Amino acid sequence: MIKLKLPTLASAVALSLAAGAPALAQDAGNLVFPIGESDLFNWSDLDRFTEMDFSGEEVSVLGPWLGVDRDLVNSVMAYFEAATGADVNYAGSDSFEQQIVIDIQAGSPPNIAVFPQPGLAADQARRGGLVPLGDALRDWTLDNYAAGQSWVDLGTYAGPDGEEAFYGFFYKVDLKSLVWFVPENLEDAGYDIPTTMEELIAVTEEIAADGETPWCIGIASGDATGWPATDWVEDIMLRTQAPSVYDAWVANEIPFNDPAVINAIETFGFFARNDDFVDGGRAAVGAIDFRDSPQGLFEIPAGCYFHRQASFIPSFFPEGTELGVDVDFFYFPPFAGEDLGNPVLGAGTLWAMTAESEATRALFEFLTTPLAHELWMAQSGFLTPHLDVNLEAYANDTLRKQGEILQAATTFRFDASDLMPGAIGAGAFWTGMVDYVSGESAEDVTAAIQRAWDAL
Hints:
Elements: H1 6-19, H2 23-27, H3 47-50, E1 58-63, H4 67-84, E2 87-92, H5 96-105, E3 112-115, H6 118-126, H7 135-144, H8 148-154, E4 156-158, E5 164-166, E6 168-175, E7 178-181, H9 183-189, H10 197-209, H11 227-240, H12 243-250, H13 259-272, H14 282-285, E8 307-308, E9 328-331, E10 343-353, H15 358-367, H16 370-377, H17 397-408, E11 411-414, H18 416-419, H19 422-437, H20 442-454
């Protein structure tokens, strides 16, 4: 990995300023990481942008981030502004999904829209509201993101003429395929960290045979009760079926009560519908709030040894919990016998162009640089599948390990329930999983979900 030291960068900047990019000199003192002072970052990535002059030009960006995340994205955009003279105006909205549709329909969209879900972006592409990003950015994604084909597929939609094009570039990713545990508890009991699903099933049975409880599982979430169980099923689908089957399931090209889906639900049931396997017994699964469900990890004696949940769950750990010491995680493992590689379930935000300009296309080019990722990595709340970033730039070991999981992924798939129609993914699927953990059969539950889909 090449890192340009300050004297070299300073020389490059001096030349670029002579060519007309005064913003770097004006704003460099306001940057969160002084240019060139740390070798964690690929500073040389700035060189080609200092040769661009977009002084006085605005790139407007509308997205879902408010508060801390708004400040973080602005801290990264500041480097593009400093190098090119452009003014990147990010606006966050807690009603982004409604606002972006209104702006596009009114003919006054921002230059860039940051979509939390691909489905809405695909809908706007079909309606003519998005501008294709082009083959060069598609090919770059294919070659430079781990599981690149997955990211290209997630950002490719049919346009108003029915022709497919690459519209969505993913920047900032969330990871769901994680199992959390307390290292001291596992070590004291002599249990090994499983690396295959077969081993995870075996250690689950071993812990229960020893008179302990292997899992904490809670799927209550107010009006959204059931969604944690859908994540389990989605992760298992990726570990038992080819990605094409997962995609067909999401698109209702195979019925919800297909044997592949029933098998995934029943595999989840192996863990969740056994009184000996779950803290509080199977009745607790539907009753315990997902935010409270990991608390058993920290009880003395331990109420459970494992908790499967996404990268955000540490927000609900006891105050003062030190990640990597008091609690850690491992990758939710694949079935060794299925030969499906290392699939990862997650979510993320895709950046789409809603009004074209030369400066806007340059900003997308900036987002492909390792530097644009490292600057956010070094702060908080950012994961990336970019293969060329310096993993040492991550703010802590926990984020670094999650980034390594993303880089090792052979397949990435977006949360299925977020891609399905709302009445299914955020309705019948959620309630169906509640019915399942309450005792209904997977066959009956999936048949009911399919009936709901057929009725749309």
